[in-house]
Amino acid sequence: xxxxxxxxxxxxxxxxxxxxxxxxxxxxxxxxxxxxxxxxxxxxxxxxxxxxxxxxxxxxxxxxxxxxxxxxxxxxxxxxxxxxxxxxxxxxxxxxxxxxxxxxxxxxxxxxxxxxxxxxxxxxxxxxxxxxxxxxxxxxxxxxxxxxxxxxxxxxx
Length: 157
Description:
Strand content: over 45%
Number of strands: 10
Radius of gyration: 14 Å
Helix content: under 10%
Largest sheet: 10 strands, antiparallel
Number of domains: 1
């Protein structure tokens, strides 16, 4: 299943994973302020992720997707909820549709617990808050686990 993640994100970013129709919001700029902690046998890059070379976000139906790339590091998020209103939180340990995936040159790690909250969702963009998102090894040479926290914002335009 881990090899399917790129396909899942490609479909969601293309606008096929939401409620149908054209994306309500799309953007390619914003801010990234995330950090990594509690690394346990983690062989990935634990430097704070606070900038990007590419940031793409969209809201389509009941899905928010955000893709952050910084050279050889990627943070992919798909937030699926019946409500995308500010304050909506998804518990990743019990979610079947929302995912957070981090990858770098050593491999790929996927979320097994933690929460993602819509801090704001307006006509000008979306801000997501990651709280104690535990990422564990999924594929490639990835080992161990790490905790991700912080925010990612995309600006529509």
